[in-house]
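Researcher: Here's a chain I'd like modeled. Treat it as a single chain, no partners, no ligands.
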Amino acid sequence: MKKNQLGSSDLEVSEICLGTMTFGEQNSESDAHAQLDMAVDFGVNFIDTAEMYPVAPRAETQGLTESYVGSWLKHQQREDLIVATKITGPSRGFEWIRGGPRINQAHINQAIEGSLKRLQTDYVDLYQIHWPDRYVPITQPLFCKFSSILIFLYKITHSHLLHILH
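Model: Modeled as a single isolated chain. Structure tokens:
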């Protein structure tokens, strides 16, 4: 499998990323593990998930995808895999996620801690905002605030965050 550099970071990701948004809704945990194993066997090292998965989003299933990935991930060579996850943005109305998701230090801390627990790892390689508030302009101060919060939390490697986002 061809690998590509992710942005200006030192992360090398497979050309194909395994999306996991159906794990926990359309797939059982054993099906998810089999799909993850097959992807890795074919050279995929890049796995994408999110705190709100699986889709369609429901309070009863929220977080199952990360849990399924996590129960698989704990048996893998973590350093060989690139794991991306996302905080749920504020514009979708998922009140069952932190009482209605927001992008502030408290919500980011809760979200990343929850993701790390479900993923059974102590770091993620790429952290993104899922459905950012489209009505708030993305300005340099907002970008700096989000990246500063993440660096403060030490949940993403400092160098990866800075290289990817610049």
